[in-house]
Amino acid sequence: MGGLTISRKLAQDDPNDAQKQRDLSISFDRLGDVYLTLGRTDESLEQFMGGLTIRRKLAQDDPNDAQKQRDLMISFFKLGTVHQSSENFLMAVGEYEKGVRVLEQLIDKGLLVESSVREKEFLLSLIQQCRDRLNQGAQ
Questions:
Q1: Residue 60: is it exposed, middle or buried by C-beta count within 10 angstroms (0-12/13-18/19+)?
Q2: Which one of 19, 38, 50, 139 is at 20 to 30 Å from 9 when CA atoms are compared?
Q3: Helices (H), ranges, the chain
Q4: At 84, is the pLDDT very low, low, confident or very high (cuts 50, 70, 90)?
Q5: How far is 54 from 24, CA to CA, in rounded Å?
Q6: Angstrom distance (rounded) from CA 111 to CA 89
Q7: What DSSP character marks residue 17?
Q8: How close are the terminal C-alpha atoms of the chain, in Å?
Q9: Model confidence over 91-100: pLDDT tens digits?
Q10: Model pTM greater than 0.85?
Q11: Whole-angstrom distance, CA of residue 47 vs CA of residue 138
Q12: What angle do the packed helices 18-37 and 41-61 form, to 10 degrees?
C-alpha cells in the first residue's frame, strides 16, 4: 500500500504530469495483481478500475501514443482476467473485446504492429475460452 500512497501523492501534486499519472496506474495494477493472487477479486477489481480510469484519460488525451494505448489495453486485459477468474465469463468477454479494439487501432495506425498482433491473438483465444465456458453452462 505504501507505493500506492506515494504514487497517489505525487500524482495529486502534479495532475498534469502524464508520467506521474501512469506511475499511479501501475501502482493500482500491482496492488490489483496482489489481491487477485490472494483470491480477493472484489479488491482486485477495485484497484484495476482505478488504473483504468487514469489510463483511459491518458489514452484519450494522446491517441497516437502507442504506450498509452497499450496501457489501456492492459487495463482491459486485467479486468477481463478478474471476471474470468470469478467465472463471470460474459463480463470477461466484454473487457477482452475492448482490449482487442484498442489493439486493432494500434495496428491500423501502424503502431506496435508486431506485438499488437500477438497480443490480439492472445486476447482472442481468451475470448474463445470464455465463450466455450458460457456454452458449456448453457447445455
A1: exposed
A2: 38
A3: 2-13, 18-37, 41-61, 66-85, 89-108, 113-138
A4: very high
A5: 8
A6: 30
A7: -
A8: 44
A9: 999 999 999 9
A10: yes
A11: 31
A12: 160
Q: Enter the C-alpha cell of residue 125.
A: 483465444
The residues, ordered by sequence, that sit 6+ positions from 76 with a Cβ below 8 Å of its Cβ are 52, 95, 96, 98, 99, 102
Q: pLDDT (tens digit, 9 = 90+) per residue, 9-59? A: 555 655 677 889 999 999 999 999 999 999 999 999 999 999 999 999 999
Pick the closest to residue 133 from 108, 96, 102 (CA basis). Answer: 96
Residue 47 identity: Q
Q: By C-alpha distance, which of 61, 83, 72 is closest to 134?
A: 83
The letter for the amino acid at 53 is T
The three cell numbers of residue 2 are 505504501
